[in-house]
Specification:
Radius of gyration: 21 Å
Bound molecules: pyridoxal-5'-phosphate
Order of helices and strands: EHEHEHEHEHEHEHEEHHHEHEHEEHEH
Shape: globular
Distance between the termini: 70 Å
Length: 392
C-alpha cells in the first residue's frame, strides 16, 4: 500500500526549551490547512482514495492523527521513544501490568495510588503475578525484597499521599542489575519538574487526568516507552483492548499541555506558601510536603526534580477537625482528584485509598485525621483564608 500521509513528518524540536515544546507539540499546526490549533479528527474510519493507497490512517482504534499528535508530544516531553494515550490512568497502568506473565514478581511503592494497588491485587494476582510493597526510599528494603523472578519495579515519587521520595537513578541501577523494568508514575511532578527516563526509567506512566490535562475536565492516561520491544507490546495491547483516548479528549489534553509550564510554576509557588502556613497552625500536627528542607526526601528531590509540585498532605489534631474542614471549605472544593486549576481537598481514607487495607493505611499514617490537598492556581491568599475559616 502506498502512503500518502501528511502526518508522517514531525519535528522533535530538540533545539527548543521545554517551555516552548509544550506549546508547539510534535506537529503543532495542521500540515494541510495550517490550522494553528491541531484539528480534532472526530472520525472512526478513513477513506482510501483507491486500491492500494492509504493516507496512513485506516481506523481510529489503530491510529488517529489527533491522538497521535498527543502521543508524539508526550514522547518528546518525557524524552522517550513512543507515547501512548489511554482512556484513563488506570487503562495506562493495566497495559503496563499486561507485560507480566504467570510467576512474575513486582516491587511497588508501599503507598501507591489506590487504583494501582487494586489492579495488582484484584486482577494480576489472579493471573499468577505476585506483588510486594516496599518503601522505595529505602535501598535496603528494595534489595531485601528482590527475587530472581522480579520482573518490574513500579515507583511513584513523590508518593500519593504520603509524599515519600525515591531515588529514580539509584533504583534504575538496581532494576538493571536484576533485569527488571523500571516503571515510574510521574503524575505528581509531570515532565515539567521531573523526567524519569533521563534518570533511567524504562516506562513513564501518567494519569493524564491530573496535571497534564490540568482542568478537571477529562479522564486520560499516558505511557511513554523507551524501546521498540516495549512499543510493540503496547501497540499490540492497545489494538486488542481498544483502550485508547478518543480524539476530542486527546485534543483537550493537547490544549491543556500548552499551559503546563505556567500552571506547574504557580502550583509550586502556591503549595510552598500553603505548606509553610499549614505548618504554623496549632491544629495541624504534621505536614507532608517535599519542599521542606527537613523532609526526608528533600535532598533527592532537589537532585532529580526541579520543583516540588502542588501536593500537600497534613494531619489534623482530631477526626472532628478533619471532618469540619472538609465540610466548611467554600472556594476550595471537597472532591477526589488532583492537579487541576481548582484547589481540591480529599479524604484519602475513604476516597483514594478506600481499597487499601485499614492496617496498611494506619501504618502509613493515612488515618481519620489525614487530609490531602491539591493546591490550585488561584490567588494563594484566598486558598489560605479559606483554609483558615474552615479550620476555625
Ligand atoms: C489518579 C491517579 C492514577 C489513576 O488515574 P485515572 O486517570 O484516575 O485512571 C494513577 N496514579 C496516580 C498517581 C494518580 O494520582
Amino acid at each position: 500500500m502506498t502512503n500518502e500521509c501528511y502526518y508522517d513528518e514531525f519535528d522533535k524540536k530538540e533545539h527548543l526549551a521545554f517551555d516552548s515544546k509544550v506549546v508547539h507539540g510534535a506537529m503543532g499546526c495542521d500540515p494541510i490547512t495550517g490550522a494553528v490549533s491541531f484539528p480534532i479528527f472526530q472520525t472512526a474510519t478513513f477513506r482510501h482514495r483507491s486500491f492500494g493507497i492509504s493516507t496512513g490512517y485506516d481506523y481510529s482504534r489503530l491510529s488517529n492523527p489527533t491522538r497521535q499528535e498527543l502521543e508524539r508530544t508526550m514522547a518528546i516531553l518525557e524524552g522517550g521513544l513512543e507515547g501512548f494515550a489511554f482512556t484513563s490512568g488506570q487503562a495506562a497502568n493495566m497495559t503496563v501490568f499486561s507485560l507480566l506473565k504467570d510467576g512474575d514478581h513486582v516491587l511497588l511503592s508501599d503507598d501507591i495510588y489506590g487504583g494501582t494497588f487494586r489492579i495488582c491485587e484484584e486482577i494480576f494476582r489472579r493471573v499468577g503475578a505476585d506483588f510486594t510493597y516496599v518503601d522505595m526510599g529505602e535501598e535496603s528494603q528494595i534489595r531485601a525484597n528482590l527475587r530472581p523472578n522480579t520482573r518490574m519495579l513500579f515507583v511513584e515519587t513523590p508518593t500519593n499521599p504520603m509524599m515519600k521520595v525515591a531515588d529514580i537513578a539509584a533504583i534504575s541501577k538496581t532494576a538493571k542489575e536484576n533485569n527488571a523494568l523500571l516503571v515510574v508514575d510521574n503524575t505528581f511532578l509531570t515532565p515539567y519538574f521531573q523526567r524519569p527516563i533521563q534518570l533511567g526509567a524504562d516506562i513513564v506512566v501518567h494519569s493524564g487526568t491530573k496535571y497534564l490535562c490540568g482542568h478537571n475536565d477529562v479522564l486520560a492516561g499516558i505511557a511513554v516507552v523507551t524501546t521498540p520491544e516495549l512499543a510493540e507490546h503496547f501497540h499490540a495491547e492497545t489494538k486488542s483492548r481498544g483502550n485508547q483516548l478518543a480524539p476530542f479528549d486527546s485534543w483537550l489534553l493537547l490544549r491543556g499541555l500548552k499551559t503546563l509550564s505556567l500552571r506547574m510554576q504557580r502550583h509550586n509557588e502556591n503549595a510552598l506558601a500553603v505548606a509553610k502556613w499549614l505548618r504554623a497552625q496549632p491544629k495541624v500536627k504534621k505536614v507532608y510536603y517535599t519542599g521542606f528542607e527537613d523532609h526526608r526526601g528533600y535532598e533527592i528531590s532537589t537532585r532529580q526534580a526541579t520543583g516540588f509540585g502542588g501536593m500537600i498532605s497534613f494531619e489534623l489534631d482530631s477526626e472532628e477537625s478533619a471532618h469540619k474542614l472538609l465540610s466548611n471549605v467554600k472556594m476550595i472544593l471537597f472532591a477526589e482528584s488532583l492537579g487541576g486549576t481548582e484547589t481540591l481537598v480529599t479524604y484519602p481514607l475513604t476516597q483514594t485509598h478506600e481499597s487499601i487495607p485499614r492496617e496498611t493505611c494506619e501504618r502509613l499514617g493515612i488515618n481519620e485525621r489525614f487530609i490531602r490537598i491539591s493546591i490550585g492556581i488561584e490567588d494563594v491568599n484566598d486558598i489560605i483564608s479559606d483554609l483558615e475559616q474552615a479550620m476555625a
